[in-house]
User: Which sequence fits this backbone?
């Protein structure tokens, strides 16, 4: 599904974010990318949606080399990948409903589809009662649920989440992790980046550990990490 | 599909406009100033054109004949002048009419009237007042009236051509109006340009506040046009509303200035001018507003689309 082949990324200030990263993600897998701040987790995830370009190596998503895509092809790829950010990044002037509907409008879905799918996605993340609120009226946990609803509403093949629980308390963290597990059980590949080893343990899934831009461990037994 | 997208872009543009009420108001106010400057260019050039035209019409060439000049010769000369393509009109004042006019002008001055009476004859000659289409032709007409051209040089019946006296004043006035016209227009155009830049920066500032939003739209896969569309629609709305406000403001402003311009400048009332040319001024203001608003937004969004 996703292949990283010898991917390196050097930023203009000469800092090396990724250094020869190679690994693959199978369809419907749930993987956690773990590492300290600055280990290269965010850069790695950004490459899946062509937000960052590798200095060398290549990233393939469904056999398409991401960084050779141009214009509308990038937009099409981004509609197939749902993204959840640590800082939620909701559109502040749109309601919860409109934020989620926006992702569907962008994908060119009809009003009828939007009317039936948006409530469904909001229900899946448990935020239905806040449908007509604006983001500023929501708590962090609620905003993150909306962001997840937006990421999944187009039924993407892949959902990537960059520190989705970074700004949340333990209770909300637990709930967000449960939602992501539920999404994975609906045949969606999920990749999360986190530095919270507690989450990794709770997930009991495959873990890729990054350190200074290198993959230092790739294991399906997270308990070994502790 | 295209229709659905267009509908969504327009709806989103209206919503952005409404939900960013404070920023929308700011940029509308800035645009009102810009459009007022553009409107002032229209009014100023109308005033200056009318002034120049008025001065030209006030300039004439007056030929006074000696009292002995036979009226048949004067009338013959009048016909000759009327035949010239650069002459717009020639007005004949007979000796009697000249005297009557003189008496009227000096009705309160008894000494002058007494002197005239004592003379026992009419000391004034007939008079021709010539108007040219273009003030610059007076030179040629005056030359035409020189004895060698008009009257075969045997007898000069012309007492005085007063153009010579006014020539310098006329030239100075014409060039002064020309200079004022150029300076005024240059100043207004410069101010309009500066205020277009201010509008552009205001819109840019508004879009700067939306840069994160634009990035999010990009990352959920929105196309360039789909992101830019609502901003351009909002920009067009700013322009449209600003234009309507400006046009509404012009009404009391020109009404108030109408009297002043009518008396200070030569014969143009800006209020009447505004009402008579409303359609034209409406179109120029509205189209400028839409154009400035739309283009500013279009260009400002461009910067934040590079993700």
Assistant:
């Amino acid at each position: 599904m996703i292949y990283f082949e010898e991917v390196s990324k050097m930023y203009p200030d000469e800092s090396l974010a990724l250094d020869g990263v190679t690994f693959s993600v199978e369809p419907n897998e749930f993987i956690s990318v773990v590492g300290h701040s600055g280990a290269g987790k965010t850069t790695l995830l950004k490459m899946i949606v062509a937000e960052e370009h590798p200095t060398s190596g290549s990233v393939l998503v469904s056999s398409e080399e991401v960084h050779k895509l141009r214009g509308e092809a990038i937009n099409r790829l981004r509609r197939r990948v749902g993204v959840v950010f640590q800082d939620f990044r909701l559109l502040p002037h749109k309601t919860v409903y409109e934020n989620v509907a926006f992702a569907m409008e962008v994908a060119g879905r009809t009003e009828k589809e939007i009317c039936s799918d948006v409530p469904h996605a909001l229900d899946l993340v448990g935020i239905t009662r806040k449908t007509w609120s604006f983001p500023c009226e929501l708590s962090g946990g609620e905003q993150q649920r909306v962001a997840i609803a937006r990421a999944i509403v187009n039924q993407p093949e892949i959902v990537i989440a960059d520190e989705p629980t970074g700004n949340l308390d333990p209770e909300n963290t637990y709930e967000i992790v449960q939602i992501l597990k539920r999404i994975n059980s609906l045949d969606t590949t999920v990749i999360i980046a986190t530095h919270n080893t507690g989450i990794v343990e709770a997930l009991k899934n495959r873990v890729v550990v990054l350190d200074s831009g290198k993959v230092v461990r790739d294991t399906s037994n997270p308990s070994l990490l502790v | 599909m295209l229709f659905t997208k267009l509908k969504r872009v327009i709806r989103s543009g209206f919503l952005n406009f409404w939900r960013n009420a404070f920023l929308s108001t700011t940029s509308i106010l800035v645009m009102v100033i810009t459009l007022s400057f553009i409107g002032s260019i229209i009014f100023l050039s109308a005033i200056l054109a009318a002034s120049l035209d008025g001065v030209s019409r006030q300039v004439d060439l007056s030929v006074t004949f000696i009292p002995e000049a036979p009226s048949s010769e004067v009338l013959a000369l009048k016909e000759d002048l009327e035949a010239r393509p650069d002459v717009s009109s020639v007005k004949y004042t007979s000796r009697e009419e000249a005297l009557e006019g003189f008496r009227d002008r000096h009705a309160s001055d008894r000494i002058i009237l007494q002197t005239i009476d004592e003379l026992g004859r009419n000391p004034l000659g007939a008079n021709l007042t010539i108007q040219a289409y273009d003030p610059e032709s007076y030179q040629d007409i005056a030359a035409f009236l020189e004895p060698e051209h008009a009257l075969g040089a045997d007898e000069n019946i012309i007492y005085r051509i007063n153009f010579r006296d006014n020539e310098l004043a006329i030239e100075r006035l014409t060039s002064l109006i020309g200079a004022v016209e150029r300076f005024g227009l240059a100043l207004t155009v410069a101010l309009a340009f500066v205020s277009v830049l201010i509008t552009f920066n205001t819109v840019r500032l508004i879009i700067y506040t939306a840069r994160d939003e634009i990035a999010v739209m990009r990352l959920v896969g929105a196309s360039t046009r789909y992101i830019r569309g609502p901003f351009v629609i909002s920009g067009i709305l700013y322009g449209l509303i600003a234009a309507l406000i400006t046009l509404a403001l012009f009404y009391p402003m020109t009404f108030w200035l109408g009297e002043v311009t009518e008396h200070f400048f030569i014969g143009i009332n800006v209020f009447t001018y505004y009402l008579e040319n409303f359609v034209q001024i409406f179109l120029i203001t509205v189209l400028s507003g839409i154009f400035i608003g739309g283009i500013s937004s279009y260009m400002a969004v461009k910067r934040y689309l590079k993700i």
